[in-house]
Structure formats: structure tokens, C-alpha cells
Amino acid sequence: MKQPKIVGISGNARRPSKTRALVCAVAERISQKHGFAVDIFDLVDLGPSVEPTREEASKETTRVLEAIEGADALIIGTPVYKGAYAGLLKHLFDLIDPSALKDRPVLLTAVGGGQRHSLIIEHHLRPLFGFFEALTIPTGIYASEGDFTNGTITDPALSDRIDHAVNQLGAILIHEVFRTA
Ligand SMILES: Cc1cc2nc3c(=O)[nH]c(=O)nc-3n(C[C@H](O)[C@H](O)[C@H](O)COP(=O)(O)O)c2cc1C
Fold first, then answer.
1. Is the CB of 114 under 6 A from ligand 1?
2. Is the pTM of this model over 0.90?
3. Of 28, 56, 76, 85, whose CB neighbour count within 10 A is largest?
4. Among 73, 41, 45, 74, residue whose Cα is nearest residue 58
């Protein structure tokens, strides 16, 4: 069976990172349920900034941009900074070709310090991917610091939500795999 290329982008600026832990948990669930592998990139590996234009992008930034544009599906994770997504994550997507993500399934996740900004997915992330005409998965996954113990997800409701979103993504991917087989 054809394996879809699934790419996870974690917008964390430091390690260890709960944002990365959430993206990894989603990736593991995709692998358990559907047998698909996920390549995960951390923005912390790109350094403190991203180059201003695509032409000036470093080899490493270009590798991440090409992975995003070549993916069959994306898992996006961002820490909440000042009520919105990380600026570096937005900067990376500023360099993506505007037509590259059309119809692409995108599963959205975010981690904040508390519940106050839990609508970041609906108010910030979903509109960004709306610009790209991507196919965002209906269930977004928001987590807060209290959902983790020693960096691992321990909240059962969050775990259920991951399952739900992964089932929605899986239904689309399996349909695509059979359509193109
Ligand atoms: C500069 C900065 C701004 C933040 N702003 C918010 C915020 O507005 N709302 C919120 O819920 N958490 C906020 N937080 C908390 C982070 O979202 C939270 O610690 C998150 O887990 C960080 O993800 P990470 O572990 O991947 O770095 C902020 C943290 C930092 C460092």
C-alpha cells in the first residue's frame, strides 16, 4: 500500500517542548492506527530566526519548506505566545508558495500555559491555513501545561481528542491512498 508523506511541524523555540510532545503523540497515534510514518521538524533547529525571503533561505530552512510543500498531509503544532501562534512559525509559512497547500489535509494543534487562549486554533491557526485553501481537520487539539506529567500527555480527555482528530485525518488519507492506488 502506498505510504502518504506526512510531515509534522513543531513551532517550539526550546527543548524540552510540550508542543513537540503533542505533535509526537499525534504522530505515534497515526502510526498505531493507520501504519503511516511521520517526519517531524522542530523550528528550534532553524535557529532564532528564519531568512526574510525564499531566495535567501538556508539549506536547512529550504529542506523544511520543501518537506512542507511536498507533504500529503501536515500536523502543525505551535506554542501559544501572547494569545497567538509563534511568530517564527508564521514566518516559515510566509515563505511557502501560496498554492502549495491547496486541498492538503492539515491537523492543527497548540499548547498554551492555561485554558484562556484555547480558541487559538479557531481564531489564528485555521484562518492561516484557510489562506492556503488547505483542508483543515475539523477537530483541533488544544492542550495546556496541566495536561502533561513530566512532558508526557496524561489527561484522558486530551488523549480522546487526539484519537478523534487522528480518525478524521486517517479517513481522508485512506480515501486518498485507495483513490490513487
Ligand atoms: C513569550 C511567551 C508568551 C506566552 N504567552 C502565552 C499566552 O498568551 N497564553 C498562554 O496560554 N500561554 C502563553 N505562554 C505559555 C506557553 O504557551 C506554554 O508554556 C507552552 O507550553 C510552551 O510550549 P513549549 O513547551 O513547546 O515551549 C507563553 C510563553 C512564552 C515563553
1. yes
2. yes
3. 76
4. 45
